[in-house]
Structures are given as structure tokens and as C-alpha cells.
Amino acid sequence: MEHQLIEVGQNKRTIGHLLLEAGKLQPQDADQIIKAQKEYGLRFGDAAVKLGLVTKEDIVQIVSKQFDYSCLTVGDDSIDSRVITAFHAYGDDVEALRGLRSQLSLRWFAENKSLVLTAPRSGQGTSYTAANLAVLFAQLGQRTLLIDADMRSPAQHELFRIQNRLGLSDLLAKRVDLDVIQPVSKIANLSLLTSGTIPPNPLELLGHSRFEVLIQKLEEQYEVLVIDTPAMLENSDAQAMSAVTKGALLIVSKDNAKIADIEQAKQQILIAGAEPVGVVLNSVNS
User: Fold this and answer.
1) Do 143 and 136 meet the contact criterion of CB atoms below 8 Å apart?
2) How wide is the angle at C-alpha 254 spanned by C-alphas 251 and 257, nearest 5°?
3) What is the C-alpha separation between 80 and 134, in angstroms, rounded?
4) 28: burial class by Cβ within 10 Å (0-12, 13-18, 19+)?
5) Per residue in 237-281, pLDDT tens?
6) Residues 6+ apart with CB under 8 A from 110
7) pLDDT by residue (tens digit) across 187-223?
């Protein structure tokens, strides 16, 4: 992955200072780097990389701090590496996801706050897309809540390495309050509502007016709600939630999708009185 190394001269907390604070450089390294800067005509970060004192990923992390942009170091196991937007500021996949964020910002979130993500069938990459989109909206500085509403086969707690004892199902059953929402500590502006206890009656919980009331409360606290749901054609959970959010985004795998299934899923969204916001062709089946 190629990264452009940049340095902001007017920022008093320079790359050099931040690298020292992070323990990536020692004070005695500075003279060596400055000498290389002059010899090769490089910026401080580029010279440090050329000398093998730091890596390109180290520089990306430091630049992210300068711009208050939440980005983890590659290899940090506090979040699953499949959440690529938490680790990489560049790359084709990240840019494609950013493009999706831009389209949703213009076409949906300009007037709405919550959106269901679903697929015609399981294994299309809904959870992957939901997790990465939630990180991207948070990186824009928007208060973002990722809701794992798949109370049959939840995945978000595994992607974000967060305990899933109590969550959405427990909220809907009035066993807990909104304190079960957990901040994602290393991603500013991002919180996660896990699926919670696996219930025997997820559809009944979602179909109850409590879900609509809950979404209304959450929309008062957050600017963006990304809702990860089960496959549209395998049960009615996503359809019930679409009736509340009034919009659903379909995720389909380029290797595992049928046109007939996509059309049927779109019809189910329309029957719920919601808008099929779009179809995302995905290459990750998780």
C-alpha cells in the first residue's frame, strides 16, 4: 500500500515531537535525520523512514494525530483487521468505502439519521460494510452509533473486540438502559450497541413499538446510526427495521448474488414502506 508522507510545518506539534512522544525515536536520532534531510532533500518523516528509524505506518499514525484523525497502527489487535478504515488512510478499498460514504451523505444522511444495512442472503459482507462505514462517519467528526441488530448471528462485537453480554435485545426487553452502549475507545466519535442476549423472539422484539421509540431516542443523541441486520430473504427482521428507518442499503457479493434475490429484497423493502437507498457490490463475504 502506497502512502504519501506529509508534514505540517505550521503545526507546533511536529512529526518529530510526536515521534519522540510515541517512543518511535530517541533524541539522539534527530541529528542523524536532519543530516539525511539536507543530504537527500527530504522532509523529516521521509528521512526517518529512509534511515530505517521508523516505518511508513508510523508516519501515517503521526500525521493522523496531527489532523485529529482516528487511525490505528497496523498490527493493533484491539480491532479486527477486517475493519480496514480503522487502520488505513489510503488504498483502493478504503477509497471505495469513502466514495460510498460520500454518496450516502448526499443521498440519505443529509435528511435522515438512521439506515439499515442488509443483504438478500447471508454471506454477502453486510457486517464488514457496516463496520467500515461506521468508522468512516466517525472519522468525519460525526457522532456515530453502530447497532448490531442481527440478534441471530451477531458479528460486530467480534470485529471491534467488545464484550457482548447485554445489548439491543436487552434494551428492547427493558432489562437495561442506554448505558449498555459502549464507546469504541480508539475511534473518536464511534460507539457500538451490540446485539445483546440471543433472544428466542427477535422479530417480535423488533416489531414492537419499542424499537421505533428506541431509534427516536438514539437519533437525539447521535448524528448517524448504522444498523447491521440479518439477510432480508432469510427472515423478516430487516424488513421490520426498514419500516422504522424508512431506508435500507442492500449489500451483495459479486461472487455470491442472484439478480432475482436482489429484486425480491428490494420489493420487501418497498413493502415495508421504506426506500431502497442503493445496492453495494461487495467483494468481502463477512
Assistant:
1) no
2) 70
3) 14
4) exposed
5) 999 999 999 999 999 998 888 999 999 999 999 999 999 999 999
6) none
7) 999 999 999 999 999 999 987 789 999 999 999 999 9
